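Students often ask why we bother encoding 3D structure as a string. The short answer is that it lets us treat folding as translation between two languages. Here is a chain of 143 residues written in the first language.
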Amino acid sequence: MKMTSTLDIRKQAVFNAKIEKVWNAVATSDGIDSWFMPNDFKQELGYEFTIQSPFGPTPCKVIELNPPNRLMFSWGEFGWKVSFELKDLGDQTEFTLIHSGWGGPDEIVPGPGPDQTNADISDRMNNGWESIVHEALRKVVEG
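And here it is in the second language, the structure alphabet:
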């Protein structure tokens, strides 16, 4: 059976930190820089910002904003969407990252270096998000 689209990447963690601290880490420019990538993010619906990825500047746009529970932004020209969902558990916060908007798994994505399929990029991003959420972000919010 051929898949019509690549599955969303989902990463979930429970952090030993209050929701305000996690929100500040995932929804401010300095916060995002501390565990992800340099950026000029602003917490404004519709705001267009740039993430300085290893492959160069990547255009993004805030498309959903519900402090301190949800932030979603478009990432790049490929239709990707990244959302951060936070749930208040008192002294802990449940954090869910969803990276969606993937095309068909066999669809070729042009980019720096050799062209790759959505499935290849998704697999690599899945591994990357794993350590970013469970190690880098955890260290920032629990440190």
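Translate back mentally: Strands lie at 9-15, 48-53, 56-66, 70-75, 80-88, 93-100, 108-109, 116-117. Keep this in mind for the problem set.
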